[in-house]
Specification:
Radius of gyration: 26 Å
Helix content: 55-70%
Strand order of the largest sheet: 3-7-6-5-4
Strand content: under 5%
Number of domains: 3
Number of helices: 26
Shape: globular
């Protein structure tokens, strides 16, 4: 049905007067477990490509199928559509928290601080819960009063999936198929190493054109990402990768080849650098500038919407009386039906005050009392502003397109500028600025997700306060686990080196160092965290001997600066653009320590792309990421283009098509396999036993053909499943049911 902003005649799928089981223990438990699983896979995905995909629809599909299977196997009662919605509500929190954790927290290591589990967990918990609580007063403004105005595309699609599940439809088999294929493929490729996990080919034979390398990572996770984001964004991203690999890197090599000395911020002469070193020491700053400008431009594009969101929300809130918490029956209470009852406002305010007090009273902002109080106030102001913006934008374009990076950049810029104006530029305030931005980032992300979930509940007839309780529990559980998973992945891919070129020549005063750690040689060393670098000493973690001389560098697995091991082997690192960007902003504003020329080049590049009608942020991410990452994403986008052309899916059907479901499975299965494979990296002896490439006398596992063949099989399988599947939802659902939504 079509409704105006104040249409009180809307009838959800389950009437407000009906009494159904909803907030059951099993539903919350399953939702929390799925939230951790999809949160872990989303975190891995973010560290690979700097983005995540919405988990709501896959979680809803899995909830329907798992509960249906349990009912058949054990003879338990069938679950209700409202219980299934509770599962997807609790499960959706993991993905949004993973984005914020992966975007902000690794920047700690790039600034020279330790990545502590307690700090990561505290930021995730405070940001996740604060975003949900701040969204609750906005529910009636955005979801009820503007029903029919704000379409909430992903929330509406999720509601349709739940309704189709009531009639027996489900795409869960396709999700499980993709999960199994992605999981097994990654284990065979990166665990057993039956074929190469990356191929690269240098372009040679052209005078003056050097350091140009075409590379490909035959990864099913990246293939699935490309299918989901579609051909347009995938093409823009690979365009950025091509620019970096085939233009910017060779251009820097050409102009810098004859320079007699080192050109800052590089550490070697350009003529002695590899393509990877040029990219990490020069092009990465160009990419960071492009990402920053792209994020700001995305905010400016949405500025009219942002202004109307803020003004409209306060206006709507003023005319919307908040209901009291409901009892379990479907009768009206205090003039509000079951489907229009939120957690009581006093409890919401008490919860917000408690979280703010925790921010001000904890060591999250490691300054004096005044600094902690001002920091907490900034979290409240920026948090509520961007939760409002995020919730409204989600209603217009969906959570997957929500410019959370831009909101975080704005928060970080404003926070750093305020600190500089107050004269707060010490090392503790750099940590405080990042912590504030991290909380606001997660709050904004989770606020948008909560808004989307409540829209789904509004359409199917859920009880709002029960959904709000479910996502609070789901967010808390996911936040506790995300920190440990982040540390696990970082430790798995960190590198300890004693190469003199990577170590500072200056000594430090060991009497000021407290922590000790065992080095690769079995000896015990003091740990030197360099957070305030000086000439010849880069930020990071060093192990020093009793004389104060650094003997080892522990380079992080996320955003680390080393490209090659001591033996000369290329290192595998996670390099999402956001952590480097956030660290660059903090250093640039609070220390003035920034290669502004390279950053401005990237910003100008983003502006040019925007003027040309190209998504500046997507292009900027492509510039930052290696071509080996964006090329398989492009292949996935091409498959999506072929399927949409042949099957003629509209946008809504594509979001729930077999191809999208299989791609979701590929991402989840491949990502979780990647987390498990980290075990083989940490336990080297186990990894060597399972390394078939090391046992192969001919070395065929490293050849191009097996890798391309395996990747081609996955790509063809995805195309076949996408083309063979039934047309989703729209053809399976009764017109009157969907028409009301």
């Amino acid at each position: 049905m079509t409704a105006d902003s104040n249409d009180a005649s809307f009838n959800p799928y389950i009437p407000a007067s009906a009494e159904f089981t909803e907030l059951s223990f099993l539903a919350v438990l399953l939702g929390s477990v799925l939230g951790v699983i999809f949160g872990a896979s989303s975190l891995y995905l973010f560290l690979k490509v700097g983005m995540t995909v919405s988990a709501s629809i896959p979680v809803a599909v899995l909830a329907i199928t798992i509960f249906r299977g349990l009912s058949r196997a054990f003879g338990t009662r069938p679950t209700t559509i409202l219980e299934n919605n509770i599962v997807q509500t609790a499960g959706s929190a993991g993905e949004s928290i993973a984005f914020g954790v992966g975007a902000a927290m690794p920047a700690l290591m790039l600034l020279g601080y330790e990545l502590e589990w307690t700090r990561v967990m505290l930021v995730a918990v405070l940001g996740g819960l604060l975003g949900i609580l701040m969204m609750i007063p906005l529910r009636r403004a955005f979801i009820v009063k503007q029903h029919g105005i704000l379409p909430y595309p992903e929330g509406t699609a999720c509601a349709k999936v739940l309704i189709v599940g009531e009639h027996g439809g489900s795409n869960a088999r396709t999700v499980f198929l993709g999960f199994g294929v992605g999981f097994v493929y990654q284990i065979l490729m990166k665990g057993l190493k039956l074929w190469s996990s990356e191929w690269d080919k240098a372009i040679t034979g052209i005078k003056g054109y050097t350091k140009a390398v075409v590379s490909l990572e035959p990864d099913p996770v990246l293939l699935g990402v490309g299918y989901i984001i579609g051909p347009r964004i995938a093409s823009v991203m690979v365009g950025g990768g091509v620019l970096t690999a085939l233009m910017l890197t060779p251009m820097i090599a050409y102009f810098g080849d004859g320079l007699p000395g080192v050109l800052p911020p590089g550490q070697l002469k350009i003529g002695a650098m590899s393509a990877g070193q040029i990219s990490s020491q020069y092009v990465r700053y160009i990419g960071a500038g492009a990402v920053a400008a792209g994020g700001i431009l995305s905010m400016l594009n949405a500025l009219p919407l942002i202004i109307s969101s803020v003004l409209g929300s306060f206006s709507a809130m003023g005319s919307s009386r908040q209901p009291d918490l409901a009892t379990s029956n479907g009768e009206e209470e205090n003039g509000r039906p079951r489907t229009d009852r939120d957690i009581p406002m006093p409890l919401v305010l008490l919860g917000c005050l408690g979280l703010v007090a925790a921010i001000a009273g904890s060591n999250l902002i490691p300054t004096n009392t005044i600094g902690r109080v001002i920091g907490a106030v900034m979290v409240v102001l920026f948090g509520f502003l961007f939760v409002t913006v995020s919730s409204r934008i989600t209603g217009v374009i969906g959570s997957s397109s929500n410019p959370i990076s831009g909101m975080t950049i704005a928060t970080l810029l404003l926070t750093c500028l305020i600190f500089v104006l107050l004269g707060w530029v010490g090392t503790e305030y750099r940590l405080a600025a990042l912590s504030i931005a991290g909380v606001v980032c997660i709050a904004s992300s989770n606020g948008g997700t909560t808004s989307q979930d409540l829209k789904t509940g509004y359409l199917v007839g859920s009880t709002p306060w029960k959904q709000q309780v479910a996502i609070l529990v789901g967010a808390l559980v996911s936040a506790i686990f995300m920190g440990g998973i982040l540390l696990w992945l970082n430790d798995a891919y960190s590198t300890v080196t004693d190469r003199p070129a990577d170590l500072p020549s200056v000594k430090t005063d060991v009497s000021k160092l407290n922590d000790s750690e065992e080095g690769k040689d079995g000896k015990t060393y003091k740990v030197w965290w360099v957070v305030n670098p000086e000439p010849g000493v880069l930020p990071g973690k060093y192990l020093v001997d009793v004389t104060g001389q650094a003997r080892f560098l522990d380079d992080p697995g996320i955003g680390g600066r080393l490209n090659y091991s001591t033996s000369g082997a290329e290192l595998k690192k996670f390099n999402p653009p956001q952590p480097r960007l956030f660290a660059t902003i903090i250093d640039g504003i609070m220390k003035g320590d920034l290669p502004w020329g390279l950053v401005i080049l990237g910003a100008v590049l983003a502006v040019v792309m925007q003027l040309a009608g190209v998504s500046a942020l997507a292009f900027a991410v492509g510039v930052y990421l290696p071509l080996s990452t964006t090329l398989p994403i492009f292949v996935g986008g091409l498959i999506r283009a072929a399927v949409d052309r042949l099957r003629k899916f509209n946008a809504e059907e594509s979001d729930m098509s077999p191809g999208t479901m299989m791609s979701t499975g590929l991402i989840a299965g491949g990502s979780l396999a990647g987390i498990i494979i980290a075990l083989l990296v940490v336990f080297e002896s186990l990894g060597k036993k399972l390394d078939f490439s090391a046992k192969s006398a001919s070395g065929e596992a490293e050849y191009l053909l097996p890798a391309i063949a395996a990747f081609s099989v996955i790509a063809v399988a995805l195309l076949a499943v996408a083309l063979a599947g039934k047309k989703p939802v729209a053809e399976e659902t009764k017109a009157d049911t969907i028409g009301e939504i």
